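yo, SpoIIIJ-associated protein is done. seq:
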Amino acid sequence: MTEAEQEKAPDLNALEQEGEIAADYVEGLLDIADIDGDIDKRTGSKKS
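structure:
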C-alpha cells in the first residue's frame, strides 16, 4: 500500500468505535420502543 493509500484508508479503530456508538443508539431506540433486541457487532472482513 502506498503512503497516499494509507492516508485515505479508514482507521479500523475509528470504524469500530463508530459501530459501537451506532449499536448503542439503536439499542436505546429499541428500549424506548419496548422491543427486545441486542445488537452483536460482527467484524472480520475489511469492508466497512
